[in-house]
Amino acid sequence: MRSKVILALGAIGMPLLIRNLYVLMFLVPDDMEQGPVYRIFYYHLPAFLVAAVGYLTAMVSSVMYLVKKDQKYDAIAVSATEVALAFAAVNLVTGMIWGRISWGIWWAWDPRLTWALISWLVYFGYLMLRNAIDDPTERAKNSAVLSIFASASVAITWKAIEWWRTQHPGPVLSIRTGGVQKIDPAMENMLYINWLALLLLGAIFLLVRLRQEEVQREIDALRRYAHAMN
Amino acid sequence: MSAPAVAAAGVWKYFGDYPALRDVRFELGAGECLALLGRNGAGKTTLLRILGGLSGASKGGVLINGGEVRASETRARIGWLGHSIGLYDELSARENLRTFGDLYGVASATVSEWLQRVNLAHVADSPVREYSRGMRQRLAVARAFLHGPKLLLLDEPFTSLDDRAISLLQGLLATARAEGATIILSTHQIREAMELASLVALLDRGKLVHFGERTAEMLNDPAYLYRTYGSAA
Amino acid sequence: MTMLRHAATIAAKDLRSEFRTKESINSTLSFSVVILLLFAFAFDPSPDMIAEFGGGLLWIVFAFAGALIVNRSFARELPNDCIDVLVSSPASGASLFLGKALAAFILLFGIECICLPVFGIFYNVTWWRSLGGLLGVLALGTWAMACTGAFISALTVNLRLRELMLPMLVYPILIPALLPVMMLTNTLLTGQPPPSDFTVWLRLLIGFNIIFTTLSVYLAETILVR
């Protein structure tokens, strides 16, 4: 059943990604101020949004694990975190490339970039903790607790950032600027469509990783039974 | 109709997908002494840790006198003697007992009493690090009995004790039982355990394969239980 | 309140142990002084530079010292399995955590108070101009470190690379507290007039403390009962 879902998502997502790539390379108009380089934005922002969805999923799943004690929530939490970290890395790197070309610097300590880096490190810590704990139940429980701490910290940091001066471009999506059209409608639509494509890609990664977790658990259990038989 | 002193109901403990305890159920009344036997890896320590509130059961539960183990009042009545002595090397005997005593609401007069009882009053203010092995063991026993526990959980208590400590412990256990305390001790030293026990349980790979009265055969032939109920090899 | 009484017993025990052996105190104190010394070579700071980042510099030193102190928090319960005796005692997980956080706080705050005059000497700073405010801010920042650190210490106590893992986990989580505390310390340290967004940073710091103390107290039992 799940393989069918993955295939279906792939069947929609892959062509969409390719189609988007074609469209945003050739069909969407140049930005007035920035020229062609701005096109990286079509991956930069959606990647962040997918990462944010991943972080949120991980947090909810961690809370669910502590409440229900069902291993599947732990599997979802780790898969979502890993996918989120991957897309967050894409966000950071595309941001750096863009910054290099637009502003001439590889890195600026502006709030959004800083927050993105901090969040990445915090959730990477989650993966490091998991790596260090051998027992699956302890690992699930302790990493769920850390995930909650991580989410709280990331949320507070986000708030702290709002009180800082920013060098980062302000919000351009009309949903954030309250309906005022800040960018060309064609561009904005392209953004949403690519967000959808990346989201589908993220979902596929999550499901594959989830399956991998389940298989690993089965193998671990079988190994232990085999040892106990001796 | 009062609740049994200890009631384990369908206790399972998983480490990942591996069941370390499988559907363990038994009841103990006050004043009983249970000898918990089993090979290494059978689940004795796991079960004791769940009974002492150190671990949670994956499925099922344990009730001590009808109350949850993680409730504070329940734990106030439990005495724990694990593999290690559970004492701070850098503190003195008196400081150790006072610290743990504080957590159980024990008066300092009682602490002094116990120091006398285990023959450590003369060195009570030296750090535990300087004690001999036997002295440390006696202090550990004092720590476990300090607050007059109604449930004593001992994990292989005779294993590293010297003669004096063994007779001290046996005396204390007998007195505690006479005062209505319930005792569960896991052990490989079957001889000493059989003398004290009124009930015997055998764990085999997480399952309770035998639970019943200590019989004469068990007392005379310690390996009897393993032969009769244990699995091959 | 039994929980506070238990926490006080644990804190007293930790402090007594620490003052008996002086393991952490000595090494942490010397380490802090050495770092302060190294910074002097790294920057050769003028009074203007100190006015700009003195607070930040000081808190980097405190953060390193903090990692050393909190690492011992739960690790000191490992020898002889004392942690088992504590968890099976009537003390709740929350009171165990609070006691250790309190002890870590006291030790850290003490070390910071010693570092301040050393800092003043090395960098020629009159740091006592707004002493009350400075100590208040130091206390808030130190609690953030002690609380989060003690909790992560409990989380990582059984792990192989504990000494490495603990700072790696604590520092990023602590950033939203370090940010305001560095800025506030900087201002108060050099007697500058407080910036316009002063109260905003203070609220952030207090907010962090409230949220993470609550989370830690609530979740301590979960991580201590295996």
What distinguishing features does this structure have?
heterotrimer, A: 230 residues, mainly alpha, globular, B: 233 residues, alpha/beta, six-stranded mixed sheet, 9 helices, 10 strands, 27% strand
Protein described:
The complex is a heterotrimer of chains A (230), B (233) and C (226). With 230 residues, chain A is an all-alpha fold. Chain A has helices at residues 2-27, 41-68, 71-103, 111-132, 136-162, 185-229. Chain A has 6 helices and no strands. Chain A is globular and about 70 Å long. By secondary structure, chain B is α/β, with parallel strands linked by helices. Chain B has helices at 44-51, 72-75, 93-104, 108-117, 133-145, 163-178, 190-196, 216-220, 224-229, and strands at residues 6-15, 18-28, 33-38, 59-64, 67-68, 78-81, 151-155, 182-186, 199-204, 207-213. By secondary structure, chain C is mainly α. Chain C has one domain. In chain C, 84% of the residues lie in helices and 0% in strands. Chain C has helices spanning 2-21, 23-43, 47-75, 82-88, 93-123, 131-156, 162-189, 198-224. In chain C, helix 2 (23-43) runs parallel beside helix 5 (93-123), helix 5 crosses helix 8 (198-224) and helix 6 runs parallel beside helix 8 (198-224). The mean pLDDT of chain C is 91. Classes of the chains: A mainly alpha (230), B alpha/beta (233), C mainly alpha (226). Chain B binds chain C through residues 49, 52-56, 70, 72-73, 75-76, 78, 80, 82-91, 95, 99-100, 102-105, 127, 143, and chain C through 2, 5-6, 9, 12-13, 16-17, 20-21, 79-82, 84-92, 221, 225-226.
